[in-house]
Amino acid sequence: MDCNKTGVLESGAFELIGCSPKMQKVFDLIPLLARTDASVLITGETGTGKDKIAEIIHKKSARARFPFIKINCGALPAGLLESELFGHVQGAFTGATRNKRGMFELAHHGTLFLTEIGDMPLPLQVKLLSVLDDREFVPVGGEQKVKVDVRIIAATHRPLREQIQNNTFREDLFYRLHVLHLHLPPLRERGEDIRALLDHFLYKFAKALGKQLVGFTPEATQALVDYHYPGNIRELSNIVEYVVNICKKKKIEKDILPPYIFEMPQGKERPELSGEGREKTVDAAPAVLGEDERVAKSWNEIERQMIVDTLKKFGGNRTHSARELGWGRMKLYRKMKAYGLM
């Protein structure tokens, strides 16, 4: 894999941005991790790209022609998570009107990606450990064992070693998952990559909106390079999407950047990470919008306010508002419904 002049590392059908030394180490490890069936634990702060790296490892592996199944271990209550992972039989619980295959079975011969593994409830950690050891499980409410051939990739932003000390994560499961380890550095430690990422997302969002933007002014670029990005790549992406949406000129200027990026101490870093990559969740991309400088708390609030302002501008006309935002009328309708604007 070679890093070209634009700061883009090309690897087959995938494109990863980054020529910094820390990302080069990540890129060098990917083929090695893909070559084996051993479990992989990916750590790093929220927004560093753990999901994308997991999928790339799968796509470069011998299991690439089989499914890559992702499940968020922190997004579901314990009972539902167990059913999603291992499936259930008809009558296993109220509402189980038919047999349902779980993620393990759906990922047979492929890869099961367990994101936010640090949020998995302890009782399920026991069952997961058993499946990893025996390669078989019993669906919820069932009696027959199901054998599976699945590779496990897990990811977390939590300090699992601390969770072990606090008895919220099993030590035996940790070592079972931690056969191979890949840590993704935060964006503030990848200063060389920020310009390439800005250009990448500018091109992506401008193309999606049909806008002819030629780049950032030097002042805007410097402000974005100096910012410390607590939300990492996800936050940078949100910021670029925001400014592309509201930009009325050929170049993105400093005065349309979210004002909050100037309010935080530049270069201020978080406390040192643990070996697994400690993270305190930070909402990405709050901003000040409108004449009364309302301070938004998240990207969703930015987008909601942007919709409100556009609708006001066109007297509530959705067709004109959708065109101004670069969306279709149905997308604007869905966004308005999601944000409680209708």
Task: Describe the protein's topology.
Blueprint (H helix, E strand, L loop, with lengths): L1 E2 L4 E4 L2 E4 L3 H14 L5 E4 L6 H10 L8 E5 L5 H9 L16 H4 L4 E5 L6 H13 L1 E2 L8 E2 L3 E6 L3 H6 L5 H7 L2 E4 L10 H16 L5 E2 L1 H9 L5 H15 L4 E2 L7 H4 L24 E2 L4 E2 L3 H15 L4 H8 L3 H10 L4
Parallel strand pairs: 4-9, 4-10, 5-6, 6-9, 11-12
Antiparallel strand pairs: 1-2, 2-3, 7-8, 13-14
Task: Summarize this structure as a short list of keywords or feature phrases.
alpha/beta, single chain, 14 strands, five-stranded parallel beta sheet, Helicase, Ruva Protein, domain 3, three-stranded antiparallel beta sheet, 14 helices, Arc Repressor Mutant, subunit A
